[in-house]
Specification:
This protein is mainly alpha-helical. The chain has helices spanning 10-44, 59-64, 83-93, 97-104, 108-116, 122-141; strands at 74-76, 79-81. The protein folds into 2 domains: 8-69; 70-142, 434 Repressor (Amino-terminal Domain) (Orthogonal Bundle). A two-stranded antiparallel ribbon has the order 1-2. α3 runs parallel beside α6. The protein is flat.
Length: 142
């Protein structure tokens, strides 16, 4: 066994994923707070005052361009997927958060946090949207 690398246990990998998700969410929160602060400062500084550097992106350009934090919203087709739209779709189907969580292989608490807007990961929004798509498709068949 000497010289061979021991495979990581599933539990240690799950723990690492949880830690990485927490770090990712903290970074997103910091980016959101920084963006809010930039917007507040920009409102106080009139662009015509000459205090905003030339070439600095306007707030409108930032939110439509590369400054939008991942997970703020995810476009699917023409509509933006948010926690609120996911909640509306779930309620229209008459399905509980627990049922969505079961189908998505996640916790009910995560579904609740996404619906309240506390979790906005683009991957999570997309995954839950796909689960709802599947459930809506199944409901149409019946």
């Amino acid at each position: 066994m000497r010289g061979e690398e021991r495979p990581e246990s599933a539990n240690s990998l799950v723990s690492e994923v949880r830690r990485l998700r927490e770090v990712y969410e903290a970074i997103l929160d910091a980016v959101r707070q920084a963006d809010q602060r930039v917007a507040a400062v920009e409102q106080r500084i009139a662009p015509s005052s000459g205090l905003v550097p030339d070439g600095a992106p306007s707030r409108q350009a930032r939110t439509r361009g590369g400054w939008t934090a991942p997970g703020e919203w995810e476009l699917v087709g023409e509509a933006a997927v948010t926690g609120e739209t996911l909640r509306q779709r779930r309620e229209a189907l008459g399905v509980s958060q627990a049922a969505i969580a079961h189908a998505a292989h996640c916790s009910r608490g995560l579904v609740a946090e996404v619906e309240r807007g506390r979790r906005r990961s683009a991957l999570t929004l997309n995954h839950l949207s796909q689960v709802l798509d599947r459930l809506e498709k199944d409901a149409r068949r019946r």
